[in-house]
Amino acid sequence: MAPLRLGSIAPDFEAETTAGAIKFHEHLGDSWGVLFSHPADFTPVCTTELGEVARLAPEFEKRGVKVLGLSTNDLGDHAKWVDDINEVNHVNVRFPIIADKDRRVATLYDMLDSVEHDPTNVVTGIPFTVRSVFIVDPAKKIRLILTYPASCGRNFDEILRAIDSLQLSDRQPIATPANWRPGEDVIVHVGVSTEKAKDIFPEVNEALPYLRFAKLPQGDQN
Fold first, then answer.
1. Cα separation, 82 vs 211, whole angstroms
2. Whole-angstrom Cα distance, residue 135 to residue 159?
3. Predicted TM-score of the model (pTM)
4. How far apart are CA 158 and CA 16, in angstroms?
5. 120 CB neighbour count, 10 Å cutoff
6. Which residues, other chains included, contact 219 with Cβ-Cβ below 8 Å and sequence gap of 6+?
7. Residues identified as active-site
8. CB-based contacts of 177: which residues, under 8 Å, 6+ apart?
9. What is the pLDDT of residues 51-94, one digit of tens each?
10. Dist CA 34 CA 134 (whole Å)
11. How many C-beta neighbours within 10 Å does residue 137 have?
């Protein structure tokens, strides 16, 4: 199987989850998706991450994004773990968590760790997953891939920021600069002339011939 890259079609799969059986592409429908993996249930960093995603659920929903977690335990463990997550983080986890005990989905998405990288994340020769993130658009194309080691919790504000950037660049001929936040100036796409940019954006400032900053139209400020 060819390695997954940006622009690849996200592999479809069927899986049992805490919200019932799903087919991944059918589950996403016309929505964006975030698929993110965890090494195992009842692990400290993952417990904080899933709580944070539950807290941010309205933000993902506002952006038309369906979130799908994955961990390498069965549904019985997942149910007990969700109780812990809800209690500790004062949330109510509603998004599905895949029960990937046989690591079938993790293997499909190349999420598995290796003993060469982190021997503490491999037990009796069986690797656990690293902290992978795949952002998938409504065409089922992979638009962003992030991989964190098991020891490092993810920054979900950054994942939301990346979604904002991706969705905005689909609507407008732009790129976003370092540390960009919604509402701030953007960069005019290199394929758009300065003259054309002035027809599209309310204000264009040329810092360099190849670096033009622009203010977004009012409807795209957020």
1. 47
2. 9
3. 0.91
4. 28
5. 11
6. none
7. 46
8. 185, 186, 187, 213
9. 999 999 999 999 999 999 999 899 999 999 999 999 999 999 99
10. 6
11. 18
